[in-house]
Amino acid sequence: xxxxxxxxxxxxxxxxxxxxxxxxxxxxxxxxxxxxxxxxxxxxxxxxxxxxxxxxxxxxxxxxxxxxxxxxxxxxxxxxxxxxxxxxxxxxxxxxxxxxxxxxxxxxxxxxxxxxxxxxxxxxxxxxxxxxxxxxxxxxxxxxxxxxxxxxxxxxxxxxxxxxxxxxxxxxxxxxxxxxxxxxxxxxxxxxxxxxxxxxxxxxxxxxxxxxxxxxxxxxxxxxxxxxxxxxxxxxxxxxxxxxxxxxxxxxxxxxxxxxxxxxxxxxxx
Length: 270
Fold this sequence. Notes:
By secondary structure, this protein is mainly α.
């Protein structure tokens, strides 16, 4: 492995972990950073596979809650309801992701200009939603109705377009459907678990023949960096959005999108 590849993988892993659970689109950040660094990965597999680090970070933070849910399934209706809500919300993305995987990876992931535009547009959507005077009807994530969970899952499908943001799509959808900011972010955390595991497994299967030992080593570096940086974000995000809302993330998206467009126009990287 070249030192430059190691440093690039480390840097991209940090970006993945820091951005996966905030509404700025981790995929967009990793793909754009990789483009400007000249970092190449077979079928852009690196961007998806290092998400496992972020998955394990959120699993470790929520381990106790997940354990209690698991042991409560046989006897506790509330546990069964919440697990059913998460699985129902995951269903639309599972279907769309499986059907459109090749198109998403071979076409949408190869359009950095479109990614920048989606970052900017998503930033304005977040600014708009953050300023709406919404009255939440649902504030406890474990008590979301099944119909609400499914609708949030439909919103998540928009994030198949790189630059939209999986967490951003679910949070915006949840807020418009009557949730508060904190529980919307927390539901996005839980929904990320099956969604990201599914994306990881599908991408690993689809590209198993394109990966080499060197790719595995690079992915492992990105994985560890993503795990450590995601831990920091997951432990602090809920309190942050409760106090500050989503405007800071909106402005970040807009700035990154504009800088990305400027870089593409000037022909930097690639």
